[in-house]
Structures are given as C-alpha cells and as structure tokens.
Write a structure and sequence with these properties.
The protein has helices at about 1-10, 35-45; strands spanning about 15-20, 20-25. It is an alpha+beta fold and about 50 residues long. It is globular, with a radius of gyration of 10 Å. About 5% of the residues are buried.
Length: about 50
C-alpha cells in the first residue's frame, strides 16, 4: 500500500487495473479516474487490516 501511494504521489507509476484484490501498477502511465476510484475503495477495505 505504501509503495502504491508513494508511486502515485510522485507520478512515477499509475494504476492500470484493480481486480479482485489485485492492484496492477505500471510505470509511466496515468491512472484513469475510474481505476483510481476502485483503488480508493479497495484501500479503504484493507486499511484496517494494515494496523
């Protein structure tokens, strides 16, 4: 989760797809709004498990 958040913040990677608990990040691509929304929803689901 930290890697993905940091990579998105720095603009190095984009999220290509979120599907059934798998997040595919790819270097040098922009994230589409619907994929960012799926990441946000998934992140909220797993965040409590990370504590």
């Amino acid at each position: 989760m930290r890697f993905t958040d940091d990579a998105l913040r720095r603009g190095l990677y984009g999220i290509a797809k979120v599907l059934e608990g798998v997040v595919l990040v790819q270097k040098g691509i922009p994230s589409k709004p619907e994929v960012l929304s799926a990441w946000s929803n998934f992140r909220q689901e797993i965040e409590p498990l990370m504590k």
